[in-house]
Amino acid sequence: MTDTVANPSEVSPNPSHTNGGSKPWSVPLNGSTGPDHLLLPLATPVGRVQWPPPPIVSGCRAALTQLGATPGCLGITSSWPGEGRTTVATTSALILSRDYGHPTILVELDLERPTLATRMGIPSSPGVAELVRKETGLAEAIHVVDDQLGVVVAGKVNGPIAPLAAGTLTLGLLSHLRGRAHAVVADLPPLLSSEFATQFAESCDVVALVVRSSATAVSDVRRAAQNLREAPPVILNDIASSVPRWLARLTRV
Q1: Which tens digits make up the pLDDT trace of 185-244?
Q2: I need a surface site. Which of 140, 190, 198, 203 has the fewest CB within 10 A?
Q3: What is the CATH number of the domain that holds 133?
Q4: Number of domains within the chain
């Protein structure tokens, strides 16, 4: 049987993969543990933004405390889909905007599996795809959903993903978003199922790896970490999943 992650100590990257001597940290999600100009002027918030369950909020607050109040551009990724990556990214953006008062932009870079528009009840476009195709401007692509929070969704991805992903990198989207907010949270693609995940991650100041407890193989976590420039902080998602563990292990969802 494949070993799966059950506690933070199991997900330490290979000792040969270092990040300048500092040790990666991990925070469980079970509750146990910029520029002068802002995102303003803000439009009337659209969509619906509610706090996730308290254990997730508590875990993300602990993670952000370790990262510092303003992580710059924070990338949230995982080894595989279905590990809670988008939930952690959304919650982190809410905390940065509501708790710390930072004008924050959440950007969806998982162009293959976009879900933010549906989750937040906001239009599915314009977004990243329209920006790359030069069909809209940056201000129009930022959907304001809360007092200090804007969201850039994936947009309408019509056709192959590769040209859009490459165009996003060429455009320097994350750099442009940094000029609009104090904090940027990037919902990155999973490292082991997207050929562009590593390149997107390299554009972030800090990248955190979300790991679903008792579902993700330890070997997969270590392999995913090897794809990053530095050993990543690990956020252990210990929240019960509606997907049976045996099925999650087989399907990675």
Answers
A1: 999 999 999 999 999 999 999 999 999 888 888 899 999 999 999 889 888 887 654 433
A2: 140
A3: 3.40.50.300
A4: 1
